[in-house]
Amino acid sequence: METSKVFVLLFLLSTFHFLVATCIQFEVGGKSGWEVPKSKDDYNQWASTNRFKVNDTVHFSYKEDSVMVVTEDEYDKCHSARPIFFNNNGNTEYKLARPGLFYFISGVKGHCPRGQKMIIKVLEPASPPQPSIDSQKKNGAAAMAAAVSSATVMLCVVSFLAVFLF
């Protein structure tokens, strides 16, 4: 097999992967990391300026602390005896696996009441507009084609090119 064909195929596959699976890793606290903030609302202000999607991750860097995912009630109380998630290894990564609200607090006594807590809202996945039944009846094949996702189209194109190149 020619080297140029391999490179073309690898490029197309990597482009397809990028278009389909673009997840972002967010660094909580930036360079300073996960620590008691200067202002009680620093983390929530930071979270509100970002757009979190399903399968994005949040990364926490810290020394002598911990990260807990808790319920809304535990978040409000700044305490959890049984967190949904707990880690204290100094390098925590948490995958936002569903849409909705995630409540994070520090597990170190006194840190949460001083503002080391955060709410992240993960957006619902965008779904392509679905054609109505009337539209499908009127437009037939055109309406059905509109329902095909871009990922399916890209997969077909990559498959065709792979067959064509080999």
TrEMBL record:
Gene Ontology CC annotations of this record: plasma membrane; side of membrane
Domain annotation Phytocyanin: ranges: 24-124
InterPro entries recorded: Cupredoxin, ENL_dom, Phytocyanin-like, Phytocyanin_dom
Compartments in which it is found: Cell membrane
Presence of the UniProt keyword Lipoprotein in the record: yes
UniProt family annotation: Belongs to the early nodulin-like (ENODL) family.
Protein name in UniProt: Putative cupredoxin
Species of the source: Rosa chinensis (China rose)
